[in-house]
Amino acid sequence: MPLNRPSPLDPVPPWWKGLRGIAALVLVLALLAGGGFWLLSGDGDGEDRCAEDVPGLVLAGPGDDRECIGVMNETAYAFDPRLNDVTEKIAAENRRVRDQWEKPAAGRTPVPYVKVALLTPMTASDSSVLPIEEIRSSLEGAYTAQCRANACPGLSAVNAIGIHGRTPQIQLVLASEGRNQTHWRPVVERLSGMTGGEHPLVAVAGMGVSVPETQRAADELAQRKIPAIGAVLTATNVNSERLFKVSPSNTDYAKALRKRLDRLPAEQRRGYLVFDSRDDNFVRTMRQAYDEVFADYIDKRRVSFVGTTGPRTEGMPSLFFNAFNNICLTKSELVFWAGRGRDLADLVRSLSSRNQCGHDKPITIVVGSQGAVQQANDVMGLLKDSRITILEASATDTGQWIRGNGAPSGFKPFLQGFRDLKFPDKELSDGYAVMHHDSVLTAVWALRMVTGQTGRETPGVQDVFNQLTNLHDAAVVPAASGDLSFDDASGGWPHNKPVPIIQAPGGAADPGPLYKTQ
């Protein structure tokens, strides 16, 4: 049977219908599946770079959502002008670490080093998951941990960590995944390419907040055998094979609050649950924790609202009309809040006028969160005037700890180091500096255990992961927020983490027994 060959007069098939078209399609699909990794390789168009001298950073996103993502190491880049000071310090320390290896002082041997990445948003907007103030304090805390590990110049000698010596040194790589963590994929791709070589990436710290993107990033890191240590992750359903957390879980927050609220007279335990209805791991699991731990307080009394933060807001946000009416009708004195901190002030404003509906009793808003009280700072005067109290279960209580009240043993050396590095105490109020310090510190503790036992200059990702599950008993982590223990049965959560209760305005005269994670 003769073949149907095109004659010289037949039209030439379009390029996209032949083998070249198939190959081009495969290439395009590969680029899309990789999340645009090619942009971060330094081979993209120079116009896509955030700065000409920082090839690891590119602009991503359309229009007003365009922002700088990628990896910063030895060349400083201020993702926001308010981050200029701390990013300069981190880049300078990373260069000093490299110089100790490449150009040691006369008579000194080269000092080996590895990389730990801080994966988190570095940009912010009015609706982003993290305000820029919390991003800045996160970087300051992570840098403090880096400096303590490296015994930075100007740091008090007492602040060196000193576990099994002082090597390897740490380069702190800043990995910006976008204000709502939507660009995590190309950044994780970039980080995964850094796990080999003479100075490998051995762990990822930070991990942003408890949103679906965090889960996906953690799963992808686990696929690539990279351990991750979350700083402020509390959602009980954000779990992955190689993900650890230094914060309590939302269930722990609820249990700590129950321990306090059970001291109330029975007639004051009538609660109303106000929850954010969005697809957000934190708010969903906080609601579930309240339902499990406070079923007898809440019963069927509940109402939803639409939060303002993140990219998935559907409907009109921050409408508390229904919450106001229902709390007035039931005369509830406890309001269980399952929402983000940025929306808390609007609830306070709404409830402050409850005398108009005949609700004349004080109200306590119950919160499990890190930094929610600080985000409601604008309404502190209103809280006093309207007899509303916020009772927050938190991972930190820096206000009391700075005064020496109930501070964990690891807080004092952290505080001295933080001050040595010229950061003001006010930057500690939201707790993000402490928790990001502890996230990086945990990674350092594990990798130094490897080198201390083996004598190897630089451990790999598998070695560090193995040791993270051995951080208990004699190897407990002396973190700034409390001694932390991890083992292969903890599900990535810390044992023995204290959960302080913060009261605003003012503080409780009798805080009661301190709850610790199991």
TrEMBL record:
Record-linked InterPro entries: Peripla_BP_I (IPR028082)
Chain ranges passing through the membrane: 21-40
Keyword terms: Membrane, Transmembrane, Transmembrane helix
Name of the protein in its database record: ABC transporter substrate-binding protein
